[in-house]
Design brief:
- This protein is α+β, with helices and mostly antiparallel strands and 300 residues long.
- 26% of the residues lie in helices and 34% in strands.
- It contains five helices and 18 strands.
- Strands 2-11-10-6-7 form a five-stranded antiparallel beta sheet. It has a four-stranded antiparallel beta sheet with strand order 1-3-5-8, with no helix packed on it.
- Helix 2 (35-54) runs antiparallel to helix 3.
Length: 300
């Protein structure tokens, strides 16, 4: 088993530190007959036996013609992967229970397009793409984010059956990429504000009287604050923007681990804190965060 593991590592490793681009060469691309290719081969054998038995010259010609087409298809299937340039990108943070998307760039220096490229990092989300001739494109490979923390990109299987489907060319990719997975938010009412910010008397204002401008939307921002008119002016092609407001006396919340029910599971208590942070941020409130052994000063 150890010998097999070492051999597998040598065959499928990234051959770099995992952050550089690679070009798929002959040692990284493997090819085997597909189920259709095996059936096609069996059919040719039966046809050849029939042509030999009945001494059919046209039968021999047809068998060798089909065999030549199959061998040509094998070469094109291999070439569809050979020379493809793959560059790792980045992955945006998401919440647990969502899908993390790992960006990868594909480069094609050939004068012909590369079609029907199948990427699979998770069996639930296969992805099929194409790269135009002398072009490059970015793709986002989805991976389920089932728990909080750092999610490393699993090994990607890249394969193609183009053009005839008689052969499957494949390669394994393992770039060093990871995504930050936030805790799954559990929405609940905020704890009461215990003090006003900046020494002002607190009257329940949330600091949203005066319009102060726009900023680019973050994953934790509420959909209620999106500037849809600005997005419409850009035709929906750019990033979403959030309206910012200023003025009033903002309440300063203390989001403390001790305020959560100690009888709940640890992950549930973390989800409650995450929901409080998102709610406070969406409402424009200043808040501080108190965790076990960690204190984050009040901000917004």
């Amino acid at each position: 088993m150890q010998l097999f593991a070492r051999l597998k590592q040598q065959l499928f490793r990234w051959h770099s530190d995992g952050t550089e681009s690679i070009r798929l060469g002959q040692r990284r691309v493997f090819i085997v007959p597909s189920h259709g290719g095996l059936l096609f081969s069996a059919m040719l054998i039966v046809m050849l036996l029939g042509a030999i038995n009945y001494d059919l010259a046209l039968g021999h010609a047809l068998v060798f013609l089909l065999a030549g087409i199959g061998m040509t298809g094998m070469v094109h299937t291999f070439r569809n992967l050979h020379g493809l340039i793959i560059s790792p990108g980045r992955a945006e943070p998401v919440f647990a229970g969502e899908n993390a998307y790992f960006q990868i760039s594909l480069g094609n220096e050939r004068k012909t397009p590369r079609l029907a490229l199948e990427f699979e990092a998770s069996p639930e989300f296969p992805l099929t793409v194409a790269v135009d001739a002398l072009a490059s494109r970015k793709i986002a490979i989805p991976v389920p984010a089932r728990k909080r923390g750092w999610l490393a990109l699993p090994r990607i299987r890249l394969r193609t059956r183009y053009p005839l489907g008689l052969f499957t060319a494949w390669s394994y990719l393992q770039p060093e990429m990871r995504a930050l997975i936030y805790p799954q938010a559990l929405l609940s009412p905020l704890p009461p504000a215990d003090k006003p910010a900046d020494g002002n008397e607190y009257h329940g204002d949330t600091g949203q009287e005066d319009f102060a401008g726009f900023r680019e939307r973050q994953p934790a921002d509420s959909l209620r604050h999106i500037a849809w008119k600005v997005d419409a002016r850009h035709g929906g092609s750019g990033p979403l923007f959030i309206k910012q407001f200023a003025g009033g006396a903002d309440a300063e919340l203390s989001l403390d681990w001790q305020l959560t029910d100690p009888g709940l599971p640890v992950e549930t208590r973390i989800s409650l804190l995450c929901g409080w942070v998102l709610k406070a941020h969406a409402d424009g409130l200043r808040y501080e965060l108190e965790l076990l052994g960690t204190s984050i000063a009040a901000g917004s």
